[in-house]
Structures are given as structure tokens and as C-alpha cells.
Amino acid sequence: MKNIFFLFILIAFISCKKNKELPPIDDKVDLDGTTINDSSLLFPEKYLLSAAIPNPTSIDLEKPVVIAAHGFTATCFEWLEFSEFATAKGDFYVSRVLLGAHGRDYKDFKTANWEEWQRPIVEEYNKLQSMGYKNISLAGASTGCPLILNMIRENKINTSSLKHVFFVDPIILPSAKILSISPLIGPAIGYIEVELDPGENGYWYKYRPQHPLRELEKLIRGERKKLERGITLPNGTTMMVFKSERDNAADPAGAVLLKKGIKKSDGGKIDVKMIDTDIHVFTRLRGRKNYDAANNKQQLEAFETIYTTIK
Amino acid sequence: MRKYILLLLIVLAFYDGRSTASPYYRMREPVPTISAGLRIQKAMGFYWTSGITGEFCSEKFLKKKLSLGANFTTSVLGNGIRKNAIKTYELDLSAIKYFRPNKVVQPLARLNIGYMYAAYGKEFKGSIPNNAFLCSLEFGSAFIFNEKWKPSVGFGYNIITGNGTKGLATVFPLYGHVSWQYVF
User: Fold this and answer.
1) Contact B84 A13 (CB under 8 A)
2) Tell me, what's the pLDDT at A16?
3) Which chain B residues contact residue A274 at CB under 8 A?
4) Is the ipTM of this complex over 0.90?
5) Which of A264, A216, A268 is nearest to A237 (CA)?
6) Residue A301 belongs to domain with CATH number
7) Residue B72 is part of which domain span?
8) How far apart are CA B61 and CA B19, in angstroms?
9) In this structure, what CATH number is given to the domain that contains residue B146?
10) What is the pLDDT of residues A43-60, one digit of tens each?
11) Domain containing A135: what range?
12) Which of B12, B44, B84 sits opposite A230 (nearest CB)?
């Protein structure tokens, strides 16, 4: 009887094929479809500083630049409000980078690995540095944070121009702990669907295939291990972490690991600000259905803090 | 990972427990026992932890149909040996059911109720939950090769995990464990 039971499980396991069917993508609404793409692909000059000002003057080169990287399944939309804030200030630039395999369609996203997501951030940093910008900062939201941490830690960029690093709701520990067993259950589930607010449609992938979920898990597990061993920031670089206290995507305890695991080159601690909100990436409010005046205030305070730090 | 699961299922499917049953244990009725030893755990995608474990079984308690157990494990004896990792402390009380008593291989099912504390540091006190009650189910097997030593292996599933808005971040769903106890 026992043998029959285990053989049944064995057959069931072998029969469990990868879900190769496409999810029910609505091409008219969903970013996952082939019709809607992130507009930075068509108009890079509206997003990337390297494309907007190909021949910067000495005055341009003196201004601080923040390269902003969005999170998993998101697009440049996630940093739109900060970009508008920069335009209103007029004395610093924001270069919004679209992560690799993002903002296109489900097919591109399905097969890419996290190194491909990271590549455009490295490329934009290198371009701006080679143009002569001396005051460059990196800002990440959610998954943008471990991607940035990895490129600094592994010396994928020359950090001589890197002044500040800002993390907004970094994903170091996933809130959905089920992500940790994605290598086991991933092939069975194929993809998962997330519910977007109406204002978010077309700016986020709605369907998350198992391969990128496993890549995300691999990325954050790798960076977490390095944090345990300790990471020292490049000489003269500072870091500030903004973390929502209640976050259903990036567990707030990730801030603990960053605080413990990263030191400035002089041995000093990095700054961590816990924010009393339950919004994941609280610096992006546009497109959300539910937020209030207190959230607006938190967003503005974070932008002002970044602004005063880079000036 | 997939190939290891396949391998495990193949082994279990063709394994015949009777062939390794010890004649000695087949003849002998179990006696009241206390055992204690070491336990090592690894959460899938998270930390190694280790500590002590103990079990008690008596004729006076449910006629030996259930054993009572307790574990204390900490990441200090695991990943927490690195100074930047989070130090966790976990205490579990358990009810354990052994199947096939008197055999060398004794499959087991275990229900744990416990508590975990994570030392995040003073500056995070009040902003992040640092403790939680736990409830987990374990399945595995003990291997009774002789009277004095009782090794066991298995895997467990934490029913309650943190989700970023409540619960403890250091509780991950799936874990494996190994223990080695001395029977007094």
C-alpha cells in the first residue's frame, strides 16, 4: 500500500509540466501585452539624462544627478513624481532607467535573468561618468535596491563619481515568504497574477512568471548573504534607507539587515528612516487608489531629504 | 532541487522497511524514555539554526501513543555566528507520534507550538515586530539503530510566517532538520 502511495506521488510529480500557456493578457490594458510598452523605449531623451543632454556644458556637469531605478515588474513611472520634483527644483537632474526586460512584454520578461535587469543602470552610470558628471547618486525602489547594491559591491561601476545611495523600500527579505520555496513550486504554478489599481494598469506587469520570481529570490538571497559578511561603501559615499514600517512586498526587517551589514568607508553607520505607512514604495503615489495627506507629506519629506543630501 | 525530490520519492517508493527491522526491537516493548540531544535546522532560503532537543515518553502519558518534545534553537549557532546576521531564538513544545514502533525506521509526525524572538536592535524596537508565536508541522523519520542513540531527519512547514505587515520576518515556511539524541 505504501509503495503504491509513493509511486502515485512520483507519477504526479513527473506529470507536473511547466505551465507554458500564456496568461489571459489584455493587449489593450496590460503592459504584459505586445501593444503597450514603456514610453522610455520610444523616447529615451525624456527619461535618460545621457540621451536628453548628449553634449553637457560645464554648468550641466556641475549639477547633481540621481539615477533612479524602479522595482520588479514596474517601469519608469515609479520615479515620475521624483522626476517632476527635480524639474520643479531646477538644479539637479533625475535620470530614470528602465530595467532590462521590463516595460516590454510578458515574453521578454519571462526568460530574462536579474543581471539583464541590472544592465541598463550600469550603462547609464558609465555613460554619465564618461560624459564628465562628478556628482552622481543612485536611487533604487524595491528590487532596484539589491540591483544597485550588487553593482557597487561587485565593482561593476567606477565609484569615484558616486556620492550618495538612496534606497526606498529595499527588498532584502521578501514579505511573501512563499518566494523562498519558488524553486520547488514555481514549475507547478507557472505564473502568478497580481491585482493592480486602475491607475497602475499599463505601468506594471500584471503576470509574474515563475522564472523571474526565482531570479528575484536568487538576487536577494545572494545580497543577503553578502550583508551578513559585511559590506563597506566606497570612499566618500553615503547611504540612506527609507523603509515603510508595514509593507506587503519588502519585509521591513530588511532595513535591519542593511543597517547591520553596511558600513561607510570611515566605519560609520548608514542612515535608516522607518516610515509610518503601509505603502510599498511610498515615494510613488500616483496611480494608487488609496492614500491620504499624510502619505503626500511623507513623500515630499523623502524627496526633500534626498535633495538636501545631494546638494 | 527537482532531481533530489525525484530521487527521494524513488527511494521511498522502493524502500522496504521490514528488511532492516531489528529482531531485537521487534520483540521488545518500548520502555518509558527520556532523550536529549542536538538539533540542526535549515529554513529554505534563509538561516541555519541549531540548538538542543529533548523528548519524553511514558506509559502514564497516553499509553505511549504520543511523545512530548521540546526544542530550543538559535541562529547564534548558525548563520548568526556572523555578526551582521539577525540573531533569532526559538522555543518549541511538541507532540510527536511515532509510527512503526519497535522497528529500526520509525516515521514520525510532529506538531510544534512555539515562540521566536529576533534581536533587531534598539533602534527598530516599536517599528518592526520582533517576536511571534509559531505553529509548525513536521514529518520525518527516526532511526533506532541501538538503545542509546536516536537520530532523526525530517522537514517541517511553518503555518504562521511573517508577511511584512504582521508576524516575524525571520519565520520562513519550509525547513529541514536533523537531530541526534541520547536515550537515558
Assistant:
1) no
2) 43
3) 124, 127-128
4) no
5) A264
6) 3.40.50.1820
7) 20-183
8) 31
9) 2.40.160.20
10) 999 999 999 999 999 999
11) 23-310
12) B84
